Protein backbone atom coordinates (compact mmCIF):
# COMPACT_ATOMS: atom_id res chain seq x y z
CA UNK A 1 0.00 0.00 0.00
CA UNK A 2 1.39 3.40 -0.94
CA UNK A 3 -1.68 5.47 -0.14
CA UNK A 4 -2.20 4.82 3.56
CA UNK A 5 -2.03 7.48 6.28
CA UNK A 6 -0.78 7.15 9.86
CA UNK A 7 -0.59 10.03 12.33
CA UNK A 8 1.46 9.68 15.51
CA UNK A 9 2.31 12.08 18.32
CA UNK A 10 5.67 12.18 20.14
CA UNK A 11 6.83 8.95 18.53
CA UNK A 12 10.33 8.61 17.07
CA UNK A 13 10.56 6.64 13.82
CA UNK A 14 14.02 5.88 12.35
CA UNK A 15 14.44 7.31 8.84
CA UNK A 16 15.24 3.88 7.38
CA UNK A 17 11.86 2.62 8.59
CA UNK A 18 9.65 5.47 7.35
CA UNK A 19 8.50 3.81 4.10
CA UNK A 20 9.66 6.79 2.04
CA UNK A 21 9.10 5.41 -1.46
CA UNK A 22 7.15 8.46 -2.63
CA UNK A 23 7.50 11.27 -0.10
CA UNK A 24 10.70 11.69 1.91
CA UNK A 25 12.16 13.42 4.96
CA UNK A 26 15.82 14.47 4.78
CA UNK A 27 18.31 14.09 7.65
CA UNK A 28 17.85 17.80 8.26
CA UNK A 29 14.12 17.23 8.79
CA UNK A 30 12.96 18.74 5.50
CA UNK A 31 9.87 17.13 3.97
CA UNK A 32 10.04 16.37 0.23
CA UNK A 33 6.69 15.57 -1.37
CA UNK A 34 5.98 13.61 -4.52
CA UNK A 35 5.04 16.02 -7.32
CA UNK A 36 2.54 13.93 -9.27
CA UNK A 37 0.98 10.47 -9.14
CA UNK A 38 3.38 7.86 -10.50
CA UNK A 39 3.18 4.18 -11.26
CA UNK A 40 5.63 1.36 -11.83
CA UNK A 41 9.27 1.98 -12.71
CA UNK A 42 11.07 0.02 -15.41
CA UNK A 43 14.71 -1.07 -15.40
CA UNK A 44 15.28 0.61 -12.07
CA UNK A 45 14.63 4.06 -13.58
CA UNK A 46 12.28 6.77 -12.32
CA UNK A 47 8.61 5.91 -12.03
CA UNK A 48 6.35 6.90 -14.91
CA UNK A 49 3.64 9.51 -14.51
CA UNK A 50 0.16 8.08 -14.91
CA UNK A 51 -0.55 10.30 -17.91
CA UNK A 52 2.47 8.85 -19.73
CA UNK A 53 0.73 5.49 -20.14
CA UNK A 54 -0.75 5.08 -23.61
CA UNK A 55 -3.86 3.46 -22.14
CA UNK A 56 -4.57 6.69 -20.26
CA UNK A 57 -3.71 8.87 -23.25
CA UNK A 58 -5.99 6.90 -25.57
CA UNK A 59 -8.92 7.60 -23.24
CA UNK A 60 -8.11 11.18 -22.24
CA UNK A 61 -6.61 12.89 -25.28
CA UNK A 62 -9.61 12.23 -27.59
CA UNK A 63 -11.75 13.97 -24.97
CA UNK A 64 -9.36 16.93 -24.95
CA UNK A 65 -9.54 17.03 -28.74
CA UNK A 66 -13.36 16.86 -28.56
CA UNK A 67 -13.42 19.90 -26.27
CA UNK A 68 -11.63 21.97 -28.91
CA UNK A 69 -13.67 20.47 -31.74
CA UNK A 70 -16.95 21.40 -30.05
CA UNK A 71 -15.66 24.89 -29.32
CA UNK A 72 -14.92 25.50 -33.00
CA UNK A 73 -18.13 23.94 -34.30
CA UNK A 74 -19.94 26.13 -31.77
CA UNK A 75 -18.38 29.20 -33.38
CA UNK A 76 -19.64 27.94 -36.74
CA UNK A 77 -23.15 27.44 -35.34
CA UNK A 78 -23.15 31.05 -34.14
CA UNK A 79 -22.37 32.16 -37.68
CA UNK A 80 -25.06 29.81 -39.02
CA UNK A 81 -27.62 31.27 -36.62
CA UNK A 82 -26.76 34.83 -37.64
CA UNK A 83 -26.98 33.90 -41.31
CA UNK A 84 -30.38 32.20 -41.07
CA UNK A 85 -31.74 35.07 -38.94
CA UNK A 86 -30.82 37.56 -41.63
CA UNK A 87 -32.35 35.33 -44.29
CA UNK A 88 -35.60 35.00 -42.33
CA UNK A 89 -35.83 38.78 -42.01
CA UNK A 90 -35.62 38.90 -45.80
CA UNK A 91 -38.31 36.18 -46.11
CA UNK A 92 -35.72 33.67 -47.33
CA UNK A 93 -36.48 30.22 -45.86
CA UNK A 94 -34.45 27.89 -48.09
CA UNK A 95 -31.73 27.14 -45.50
CA UNK A 96 -34.09 26.68 -42.54
CA UNK A 97 -34.44 22.86 -42.82
CA UNK A 98 -30.65 22.45 -43.00
CA UNK A 99 -30.10 24.72 -40.01
CA UNK A 100 -32.69 22.84 -37.98
CA UNK A 101 -31.12 19.48 -38.84
CA UNK A 102 -27.59 20.67 -38.05
CA UNK A 103 -28.45 22.27 -34.73
CA UNK A 104 -30.63 19.38 -33.55
CA UNK A 105 -28.11 16.75 -34.59
CA UNK A 106 -25.09 18.56 -33.16
CA UNK A 107 -26.94 19.21 -29.91
CA UNK A 108 -27.56 15.49 -29.55
CA UNK A 109 -23.99 14.57 -30.49
CA UNK A 110 -22.16 17.09 -28.31
CA UNK A 111 -24.26 16.57 -25.19
CA UNK A 112 -23.95 12.77 -25.38
CA UNK A 113 -20.19 12.88 -25.93
CA UNK A 114 -19.73 15.40 -23.12
CA UNK A 115 -21.79 13.42 -20.61
CA UNK A 116 -19.92 10.23 -21.47
CA UNK A 117 -16.64 12.16 -21.32
CA UNK A 118 -17.28 13.38 -17.78
CA UNK A 119 -17.91 9.81 -16.68
CA UNK A 120 -14.75 8.65 -18.46
CA UNK A 121 -12.72 11.32 -16.64
CA UNK A 122 -14.17 10.12 -13.35
CA UNK A 123 -13.01 6.59 -14.13
CA UNK A 124 -9.56 7.86 -15.09
CA UNK A 125 -9.24 9.45 -11.65
CA UNK A 126 -9.68 6.10 -9.94
CA UNK A 127 -11.25 6.08 -6.49
CA UNK A 128 -10.69 9.81 -6.05
CA UNK A 129 -13.10 10.44 -8.92
CA UNK A 130 -15.99 9.33 -6.69
CA UNK A 131 -15.30 12.06 -4.14
CA UNK A 132 -17.60 15.06 -4.14
CA UNK A 133 -14.51 17.21 -3.69
CA UNK A 134 -13.29 16.05 -7.11
CA UNK A 135 -16.12 18.06 -8.65
CA UNK A 136 -16.86 15.31 -11.17
CA UNK A 137 -20.01 13.80 -9.57
CA UNK A 138 -21.66 17.23 -9.35
CA UNK A 139 -20.55 18.14 -12.88
CA UNK A 140 -22.01 14.89 -14.20
CA UNK A 141 -25.31 15.35 -12.33
CA UNK A 142 -25.68 18.93 -13.54
CA UNK A 143 -24.79 18.21 -17.16
CA UNK A 144 -26.53 14.91 -17.92
CA UNK A 145 -30.01 16.50 -18.20
CA UNK A 146 -28.66 18.42 -21.22
CA UNK A 147 -29.01 15.16 -23.15
CA UNK A 148 -32.79 15.54 -22.76
CA UNK A 149 -33.24 19.33 -22.83
CA UNK A 150 -35.60 20.43 -25.62
CA UNK A 151 -36.36 16.84 -26.55
CA UNK A 152 -34.22 13.83 -27.30
CA UNK A 153 -34.29 14.41 -31.08
CA UNK A 154 -32.00 13.01 -33.74
CA UNK A 155 -32.67 14.64 -37.09
CA UNK A 156 -31.41 13.04 -40.27
CA UNK A 157 -30.14 15.29 -43.03
CA UNK A 158 -29.57 13.56 -46.37
CA UNK A 159 -27.51 15.56 -48.82
CA UNK A 160 -26.59 13.82 -52.09
CA UNK A 161 -25.16 16.71 -54.06
CA UNK A 162 -21.89 14.82 -54.50
CA UNK A 163 -23.36 11.35 -54.39
CA UNK A 164 -21.88 9.99 -57.59
CA UNK A 165 -18.33 11.10 -56.71
CA UNK A 166 -18.42 9.95 -53.10
CA UNK A 167 -19.98 6.59 -53.88
CA UNK A 168 -17.07 5.81 -56.19
CA UNK A 169 -14.16 7.42 -54.28
CA UNK A 170 -11.38 5.26 -52.88
CA UNK A 171 -9.10 6.10 -49.95
CA UNK A 172 -5.52 6.63 -51.17
CA UNK A 173 -3.72 6.11 -47.83
CA UNK A 174 -0.54 4.06 -48.27
CA UNK A 175 1.41 5.00 -45.13
CA UNK A 176 0.48 6.26 -41.65
CA UNK A 177 1.52 9.85 -42.39
CA UNK A 178 -1.04 10.02 -45.21
CA UNK A 179 -3.76 10.26 -42.57
CA UNK A 180 -2.45 13.74 -41.70
CA UNK A 181 -3.79 15.10 -44.99
CA UNK A 182 -7.03 17.05 -44.27
CA UNK A 183 -8.50 16.15 -47.66
CA UNK A 184 -8.02 12.44 -46.98
CA UNK A 185 -9.77 12.64 -43.61
CA UNK A 186 -12.71 14.69 -44.91
CA UNK A 187 -13.16 12.42 -47.92
CA UNK A 188 -13.26 9.32 -45.72
CA UNK A 189 -15.87 10.83 -43.39
CA UNK A 190 -17.95 12.15 -46.30
CA UNK A 191 -17.95 8.78 -48.05
CA UNK A 192 -18.87 6.97 -44.84
CA UNK A 193 -21.79 9.31 -44.06
CA UNK A 194 -23.12 9.23 -47.61
CA UNK A 195 -22.84 5.49 -48.14
CA UNK A 196 -24.56 4.80 -44.83
CA UNK A 197 -27.33 7.26 -45.75
CA UNK A 198 -27.83 5.82 -49.22
CA UNK A 199 -27.87 2.27 -47.84
CA UNK A 200 -30.58 3.11 -45.30
CA UNK A 201 -32.55 5.11 -47.87
CA UNK A 202 -32.69 2.07 -50.15
CA UNK A 203 -34.01 -0.09 -47.32
CA UNK A 204 -36.62 2.54 -46.45
CA UNK A 205 -37.75 2.61 -50.08
CA UNK A 206 -38.08 -1.17 -50.19
CA UNK A 207 -40.07 -1.29 -46.95
CA UNK A 208 -42.24 1.66 -47.96
CA UNK A 209 -43.28 -0.11 -51.17
CA UNK A 210 -44.69 -2.97 -49.11
CA UNK A 211 -46.32 -0.80 -46.44
CA UNK A 212 -45.90 2.96 -45.87
CA UNK A 213 -43.07 5.51 -45.51
CA UNK A 214 -43.85 5.88 -41.80
CA UNK A 215 -43.40 2.15 -41.22
CA UNK A 216 -40.18 2.24 -43.21
CA UNK A 217 -38.70 4.96 -41.02
CA UNK A 218 -39.90 3.24 -37.86
CA UNK A 219 -38.41 -0.11 -38.84
CA UNK A 220 -35.01 1.46 -39.49
CA UNK A 221 -34.97 3.97 -36.63
CA UNK A 222 -31.78 2.55 -35.10
CA UNK A 223 -30.00 2.72 -38.46
CA UNK A 224 -31.18 6.28 -38.98
CA UNK A 225 -29.68 7.30 -35.64
CA UNK A 226 -26.31 5.89 -36.73
CA UNK A 227 -26.53 7.72 -40.06
CA UNK A 228 -27.41 11.00 -38.32
CA UNK A 229 -24.46 10.53 -35.96
CA UNK A 230 -22.12 9.92 -38.90
CA UNK A 231 -23.37 13.08 -40.60
CA UNK A 232 -22.92 15.20 -37.46
CA UNK A 233 -19.42 13.81 -36.90
CA UNK A 234 -18.60 14.80 -40.47
CA UNK A 235 -19.72 18.36 -39.72
CA UNK A 236 -17.56 18.60 -36.59
CA UNK A 237 -14.50 17.12 -38.31
CA UNK A 238 -14.81 19.40 -41.34
CA UNK A 239 -15.33 22.55 -39.23
CA UNK A 240 -12.37 21.64 -37.00
CA UNK A 241 -10.19 21.23 -40.10
CA UNK A 242 -11.46 24.52 -41.56
CA UNK A 243 -10.52 26.34 -38.35
CA UNK A 244 -6.99 24.99 -38.02
CA UNK A 245 -6.28 25.84 -41.65
CA UNK A 246 -6.92 29.51 -40.87
CA UNK A 247 -4.40 31.93 -39.38
CA UNK A 248 -3.81 31.18 -35.68
CA UNK A 249 -1.73 33.45 -33.46
CA UNK A 250 0.93 32.17 -31.07
CA UNK A 251 4.14 30.23 -31.62
CA UNK A 252 3.42 26.52 -32.04
CA UNK A 253 -0.31 26.89 -31.27
CA UNK A 254 -1.45 26.01 -34.76
CA UNK A 255 0.68 22.85 -34.79
CA UNK A 256 -0.82 21.65 -31.50
CA UNK A 257 -4.37 22.36 -32.70
CA UNK A 258 -3.64 20.43 -35.89
CA UNK A 259 -2.51 17.50 -33.75
CA UNK A 260 -5.72 17.68 -31.73
CA UNK A 261 -7.76 17.89 -34.93
CA UNK A 262 -6.11 14.73 -36.26
CA UNK A 263 -6.58 12.98 -32.91
CA UNK A 264 -10.28 13.84 -32.94
CA UNK A 265 -10.80 12.54 -36.48
CA UNK A 266 -8.68 9.40 -36.19
CA UNK A 267 -10.07 8.48 -32.77
CA UNK A 268 -13.56 8.60 -34.30
CA UNK A 269 -12.33 6.48 -37.19
CA UNK A 270 -10.93 3.97 -34.70
CA UNK A 271 -14.13 3.95 -32.62
CA UNK A 272 -16.39 3.51 -35.66
CA UNK A 273 -13.98 1.43 -37.72
CA UNK A 274 -16.75 -1.05 -38.49
CA UNK A 275 -18.73 1.65 -40.32
CA UNK A 276 -15.75 2.68 -42.45
CA UNK A 277 -14.90 -0.93 -43.31
CA UNK A 278 -18.47 -2.10 -43.98
CA UNK A 279 -19.14 0.80 -46.33
CA UNK A 280 -15.87 0.20 -48.18
CA UNK A 281 -14.47 3.66 -47.38
CA UNK A 282 -11.13 2.24 -46.23
CA UNK A 283 -9.35 -1.11 -46.10
CA UNK A 284 -8.32 -2.98 -42.92
CA UNK A 285 -4.69 -2.07 -43.69
CA UNK A 286 -5.58 1.62 -43.87
CA UNK A 287 -7.47 1.31 -40.58
CA UNK A 288 -4.33 -0.15 -38.97
CA UNK A 289 -2.26 2.74 -40.36
CA UNK A 290 -4.73 5.20 -38.82
CA UNK A 291 -4.23 3.58 -35.40
CA UNK A 292 -0.46 3.74 -35.88
CA UNK A 293 -0.63 7.45 -36.64
CA UNK A 294 -2.96 8.00 -33.69
CA UNK A 295 -0.39 6.58 -31.26
CA UNK A 296 2.23 8.91 -32.71
CA UNK A 297 -0.08 11.89 -32.24
CA UNK A 298 -0.60 11.04 -28.56
CA UNK A 299 3.15 11.29 -27.93
CA UNK A 300 3.27 14.65 -29.73
CA UNK A 301 0.43 16.13 -27.67
CA UNK A 302 1.64 14.77 -24.33
CA UNK A 303 4.24 17.53 -23.56
CA UNK A 304 1.59 20.23 -24.02
CA UNK A 305 -1.46 18.42 -22.64
CA UNK A 306 -1.60 20.45 -19.41
CA UNK A 307 -1.19 23.75 -21.27
CA UNK A 308 -3.94 22.80 -23.72
CA UNK A 309 -6.30 22.22 -20.79
CA UNK A 310 -5.24 25.40 -18.96
CA UNK A 311 -5.85 27.38 -22.16
CA UNK A 312 -9.59 27.29 -21.42
CA UNK A 313 -8.72 29.49 -18.42
CA UNK A 314 -11.21 28.04 -15.96
CA UNK A 315 -10.46 29.16 -12.41
CA UNK A 316 -10.14 26.77 -9.47
CA UNK A 317 -13.25 28.36 -7.98
CA UNK A 318 -15.23 27.70 -11.16
CA UNK A 319 -14.08 24.08 -11.43
CA UNK A 320 -14.60 23.30 -7.76
CA UNK A 321 -12.25 20.32 -7.97
CA UNK A 322 -9.34 19.41 -5.72
CA UNK A 323 -8.06 17.10 -8.48
CA UNK A 324 -7.96 19.81 -11.14
CA UNK A 325 -6.16 22.45 -9.07
CA UNK A 326 -3.90 24.81 -10.99
CA UNK A 327 -1.09 24.49 -8.43
CA UNK A 328 -1.20 20.68 -8.51
CA UNK A 329 -1.37 20.53 -4.70
CA UNK A 330 -3.81 17.62 -4.80
CA UNK A 331 -3.15 15.32 -1.87
CA UNK A 332 -2.82 17.86 0.97
CA UNK A 333 -6.05 19.45 -0.29
CA UNK A 334 -7.77 16.05 -0.42
CA UNK A 335 -6.74 15.54 3.21
CA UNK A 336 -8.09 18.97 4.21
CA UNK A 337 -11.38 18.29 2.42
CA UNK A 338 -11.74 14.96 4.23
CA UNK A 339 -11.56 16.76 7.59
CA UNK A 340 -14.50 18.93 6.54
CA UNK A 341 -16.76 15.88 6.49
CA UNK A 342 -18.99 15.91 9.62
CA UNK A 343 -18.13 12.24 10.19
CA UNK A 344 -14.60 13.33 11.04
CA UNK A 345 -15.68 15.78 13.74
CA UNK A 346 -15.18 13.07 16.35
CA UNK A 347 -12.65 10.27 16.72
CA UNK A 348 -15.43 7.66 16.73
CA UNK A 349 -18.64 8.53 14.81
CA UNK A 350 -21.85 8.35 16.84
CA UNK A 351 -23.08 5.38 14.84
CA UNK A 352 -20.20 3.23 16.12
CA UNK A 353 -20.47 4.06 19.83
CA UNK A 354 -22.04 1.57 22.21
Describe the structure.
This protein has 354 residues and is mostly helical. It has one domain (54-304): Up-down Bundle (Butyryl-CoA Dehydrogenase, subunit A, domain 3), CATH 1.20.140.10. The chain has 13 helices and two strands. It has helices at 54-89, 96-124, 136-143, 163-168, 182-210, 213-219, 221-244, 253-271, 273-278, 284-301, 305-310, 316-319, 330-339, and strands at 24-25, 31-32. It has a two-stranded antiparallel ribbon. The longest helix has 36 residues, at 54-89. It is elongated, with a radius of gyration of 26 Å. The chain starts with 23 loop residues before the first strand and ends in a 15-residue tail after the last helix. Mean pLDDT is 83; it is low at 153-167.
Lay out the secondary structure.
Blueprint: E1 24-25, E2 31-32, H1 54-89, H2 96-124, H3 136-143, H4 163-168, H5 182-210, H6 213-219, H7 221-244, H8 253-271, H9 273-278, H10 284-301, H11 305-310, H12 316-319, H13 330-339
Antiparallel strand pairs: 1-2
Subcellular location: Peroxisome
Family: Belongs to the acyl-CoA oxidase family.
Domain Acyl-CoA oxidase C-terminal: 182-352
Amino acid sequence: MDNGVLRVDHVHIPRDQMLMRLSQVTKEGKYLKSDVPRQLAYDGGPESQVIDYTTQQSRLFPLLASAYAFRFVGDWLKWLYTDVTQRLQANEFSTLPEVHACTAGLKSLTTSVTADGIEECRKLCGGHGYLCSSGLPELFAVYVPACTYEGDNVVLLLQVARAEHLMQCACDVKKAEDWLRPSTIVQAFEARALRMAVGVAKHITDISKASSPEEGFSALAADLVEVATAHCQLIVVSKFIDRVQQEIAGHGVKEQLQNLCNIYALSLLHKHLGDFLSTGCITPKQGALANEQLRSLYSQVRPNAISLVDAFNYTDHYLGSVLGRYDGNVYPTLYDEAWKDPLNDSVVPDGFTY
